[in-house]
């Protein structure tokens, strides 16, 4: 092994990795180096859907000549493999959303007292979209019950369209209907995807991929959007707040409890429980000064953007957090959880606690979560962490560095910050784009991956994009990558952003990279893009806007589902790394050229970060040209409306006497 090879662009993570090497500890970084990907499977040329095979479709003329035992062609096999990834990713997000809908129903029905509806305004906004009566003296819980039941219909609907399809611009909806991409029910699309891709069913590559897009749209405009809305209703719609990131969040003299995974309900209750006087007293009885709560992965994003709970980072940091020697308990639920953490924890003192009936890990403790007794479960977990504090060993790579983070930029707050409570609008953002102050917008998302210098591609692209006056919306582990680099602060704009973007950020008082949530919260980007289209001045649909999605270090099937629902919604998407369908030129052409012609979106795979940057900027500039916007020239701007700073917005609110309904779609 070459000790000079950088495994992580996060210097704190790299310190822990080096410490682990010196102590013969194996992590995902060492395993990634040892276990090389199968080139046939990695390019989509391996079929495993039946036991006639597996069949490897390789050879000089594989595209035209290679056939599986059943006769399936390489394009068919590659398409089926991609559609199965979309189905799995959609199932993951949507199962999460289903649990959120059942929790909202339990709250509305009075079956659980541990949660309350914290954002009635968001509830009414969703009710209006769904055509549900609200206000006029109607009980909030009655409205919430109707909302929950209406959203649950989206999972089992057999015909018709998802409720939230109507939130997309009309032209975007028309494209879906024209090309057979409009999703019906979430479960139906996932089941049909699995059926179509089983042996002997659908063999026409374009036909397969069209259903893949329909399944992905059920994720974006269904599962992800449902989860985001319900989470806001129950726990509050995020507003910007300050937090901290990196391994320095762990405290030597306090109980360190980490929440890791994706479902926010248990984590929300733990946030409350760790502040209870009885729990603090219990921690002190074990010799600690208090209880310190931190996060990993997307559960971290959920509690960070609502409560300011610090994050230790994304996917590749979970083993490294244990290796600090300071984590007393790590509680996990579902998705992106490495089973390796249970075995690694035995070499330290950390208790790994699984909490979901859907996800158990050999060697971990299990405490079953139940939303009907959430506080009881949360207290049990906190006590386990406290009881384990006296067992802490001195051994570990103790890290003290941490970075400030500003997070919590919801759709609603981005709208508010451009005009105040009574005149909230996306007009200033549209105007800034039209004038050339902002060149375009990039959604920087996706996982972090140990097969590249982890978080390094996120960091490179983040800096280069804002230098080129591109506003970034970040989610999931992409947000964690930026946060642990110290990039999520307004000062970042002053130091690195281009002159136009810097001016906009200074006027509004925002960072050039807006942390908008967890991976399900990519749906916020869809609603932001729809609002921008409705505002006018740019494209009248999502397609054609100077906007691009980038997932430079993706690794999960969920990322594929997200990328495909953005492509089908009209956003060109670029993924880092080699293509999982790269063995087929036909499939590559469909995803890049045919999808762009039909939906104005596309999906590319590119391992070179410099080329990712160039391709993104090219898409943005061509969109500007097609929209006949002012040609982007750094530092040269056209006329636009004056952006109000925070003081001006407060003054406007003081003068306003007419309250705003605030419940529009």
Low-confidence stretches: 655-665
Give the strand content: 5-15%
Just name the CATH architecture of the domain at 243-391. Answer: 3-Layer(aba) Sandwich
**Secondary structure tally: strands:** 15
Helical residue percent band: 40-55%
Major pleated sheet: 6 strands, parallel
> Gap between N and C termini, in Å?
55 Å
Overall outline? globular
Broad structural category? alpha/beta
Strand arrangement in the largest pleated sheet: 12-11-10-13-14-15
CATH class of the domain at 243-391: Alpha Beta
Q: What name does CATH use for the topology of the domain at 243-391?
A: Rossmann fold
Overall mean pLDDT stands at 94
C-alpha Rg, in Å?
24 Å
| Structure annotation, total helices | 27
Index terms:
5-stranded parallel sheet; Rossmann fold; 27 helices; 6-stranded parallel sheet; alpha/beta; disordered C terminus; single chain; 665 residues
Structure notes:
With 665 residues, the protein is of the alpha/beta class. The chain has a domain at 243-391: Rossmann fold (3-Layer(aba) Sandwich), CATH 3.40.50. The protein has a 6-stranded parallel β-sheet with strand order 12-11-10-13-14-15, with helices on both faces. Strands 5-4-6-7-8 form a 5-stranded parallel β-sheet. The protein is globular, with a radius of gyration of 24 Å. The termini are far apart. The model is unreliable at 655-665 (pLDDT under 50).
């Amino acid at each position: 092994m070459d000790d000079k090879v950088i495994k992580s662009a996060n210097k704190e993570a790299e310190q822990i990795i080096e410490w682990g090497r010196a102590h013969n500890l194996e992590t995902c970084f060492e395993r990634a180096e040892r276990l090389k990907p199968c080139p046939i499977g990695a390019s989509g040329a391996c079929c495993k859907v039946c036991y006639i095979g597996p069949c490897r479709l390789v050879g000089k003329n594989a595209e035209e000549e290679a056939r599986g035992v059943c006769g399936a062609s390489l394009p068919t096999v590659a398409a089926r493999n991609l559609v199965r990834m979309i189905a799995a990713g959609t199932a993951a997000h949507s199962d999460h959303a289903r649990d959120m809908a059942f929790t909202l129903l339990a709250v509305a029905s009075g079956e659980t007292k541990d949660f309350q509806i914290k954002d009635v305004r968001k509830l009414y906004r969703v009710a209006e979209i769904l055509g549900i009566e609200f206000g006029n003296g109607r009980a909030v819980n009655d409205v919430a019950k109707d909302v929950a039941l209406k959203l649950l219909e989206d999972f089992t609907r057999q015909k018709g369209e998802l409720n939230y399809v109507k939130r997309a611009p009309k032209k975007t909806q028309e494209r879906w209907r024209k090309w057979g991409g409009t999703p019906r029910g979430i479960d139906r699309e996932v089941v049909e995807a699995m059926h179509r891709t089983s042996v002997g069913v659908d063999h026409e590559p374009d036909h397969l991929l069209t259903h893949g897009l329909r399944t992905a749209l059920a994720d974006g405009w269904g599962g992800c959007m449902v989860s985001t809305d319900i989470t806001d209703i129950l726990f509050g719609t995020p507003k910007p707040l300050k937090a901290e990131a990196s391994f320095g969040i762990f405290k030597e003299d306090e109980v360190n409890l980490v929440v890791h995974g994706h479902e926010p309900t248990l984590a929300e209750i733990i946030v409350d429980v760790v502040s209870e006087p009885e729990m603090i007293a219990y921690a002190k009885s074990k010799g600690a000064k208090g209880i310190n709560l931190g996060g990993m992965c997307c559960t971290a994003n959920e509690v960070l953007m609502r409560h300011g709970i610090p994050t230790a980072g994304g996917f590749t940091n979970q083993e490294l957090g244990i290796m600090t020697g300071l984590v007393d308990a790590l509680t996990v639920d579902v998705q992106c959880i490495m089973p390796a953490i249970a075995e690694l924890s035995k070499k330290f003192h950390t208790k790994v606690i699984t909490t979901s009936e859907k996800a158990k890990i050999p060697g971990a403790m299990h405490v079953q979560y139940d939303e009907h007794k959430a506080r009881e479960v949360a207290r049990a977990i906190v006590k386990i962490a406290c009881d384990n504090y006296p067992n802490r060993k001195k051994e570990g790579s103790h890290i003290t560095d941490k970075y400030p983070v500003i997070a919590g930029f919801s759709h609603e707050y981005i709208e508010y910050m451009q005009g105040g409570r009574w005149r909230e609008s996306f007009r200033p953002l549209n105007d800034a784009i039209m004038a050339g102050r902002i060149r375009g917008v990039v959604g920087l998302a996706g996982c972090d991956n140990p097969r590249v210098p982890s978080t390094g591609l996120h960091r490179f692209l983040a800096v280069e994009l804002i230098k080129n006056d591109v506003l970034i919306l970040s989610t999931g582990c992409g947000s964690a990558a930026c946060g642990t680099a110290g990039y999520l602060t307004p000062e970042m704009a002053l130091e690195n952003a281009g002159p136009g973007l810097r001016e906009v950020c200074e006027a509004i008082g925002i960072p050039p990279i807006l942390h908008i949530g967890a991976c399900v919260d990519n749906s916020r980007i869809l609603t932001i893009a729809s609002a921008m289209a409705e505002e006018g001045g740019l494209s009248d649909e999502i397609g054609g806007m100077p906007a691009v999605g980038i997932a430079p270090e993706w690794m999960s099937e969920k990322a594929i589902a997200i990328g495909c629902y953005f492509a089908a919604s009209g956003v060109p998407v670029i993924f880092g790394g080699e293509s999982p369908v790269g063995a087929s030129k036909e499939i590559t052409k469909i995803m890049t050229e045919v999808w762009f012609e039909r939906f104005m979106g596309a999906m590319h795979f590119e391992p070179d970060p410099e080329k990712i940057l160039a391709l993104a900027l090219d898409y943005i500039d061509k969109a500007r040209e097609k929209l006949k916007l002012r040609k982007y020239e750094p530092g040269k701007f056209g006329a636009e409306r004056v952006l109000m700073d925070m003081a001006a917005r407060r003054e406007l609110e003081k003068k306003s006497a007419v309250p705003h309904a605030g419940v529009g779609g």
